[in-house]
Design brief:
- It contains 6 helices and no strands.
- It has one domain.
- By secondary structure, the chain is an all-alpha fold.
- α1 packs across α5 and α3 packs antiparallel against α4.
- It comes from Promicromonospora sukumoe.
- Keywords: Membrane, Transmembrane, Transmembrane helix.
Length: about 180
């Protein structure tokens, strides 16, 4: 092996390590966004249910000539729940997290393909081309992160449980371990 080939394979190994780290980071961030979206969907559902039931109770008690206090309390609960939905906009936040998760997932697939195909040992790839590949992926992730909503520790913990349970492993990865 010549010195040039040795340096090239060393550089390819460094690129491989960098892309593997990026792929792992993408997985965790992607799944945290999906966990946040899932949580927001539950919030939207349950607050919406409360608003609907409270509004129905308020309307029914008015029509049934029930105690005005019951109608008032039910109307107040309905107003608060509806106000929370309007102010917090959980559906919009859920969609923002889903969008970020999907973009990160698509980028993760491209990084994985680069690891498996572009760094194939038999290929003689220009080191500058590999450097450009890494820089491009990193810049794209930074752009996605910039536009994405923040994820909570709770979303990260939910993602961690699923990742560590092997929910997102490909069959070839599970068999290799």
């Amino acid at each position: 092996m010549t010195e040039s080939t040795s340096k090239s394979s060393g550089y390819n190994k460094a690129v491989e390590q960098e892309l593997a780290a990026l792929e792992e980071d993408l997985l965790w961030t992607e799944k945290a966004h999906f966990a946040a979206a899932e949580s927001l969907a539950r919030v939207n559902f349950w607050v919406g249910i409360v608003a609907t039931i409270a509004a129905s109770v308020a309307a029914a008690t008015v029509l049934a000539d029930a105690t005005p206090v019951i109608a008032g309390i039910a109307a107040l609960i309905a107003a608060i729940a509806s106000g929370l939905l309007t102010f917090l906009k959980p559906t919009e936040a859920e969609n923002n997290h889903l969008d970020a998760g999907r973009k990160l997932g698509a980028l993760r697939v491209r990084v994985r393909q680069a690891l498996r195909l572009d760094l194939f040992p038999d290929l003689d790839t220009d080191p500058q081309e590999l450097r450009g590949l890494v820089l491009g992926f990193a810049a794209e992730k930074a752009e996605i992160d910039k536009d994405a909503p923040a994820t909570s520790g709770r979303a990260f913990s939910a993602a961690r449980k699923k990742i560590e349970a092997g929910h997102f492993q490909h069959a070839d990865e599970a068999n290799a371990g």
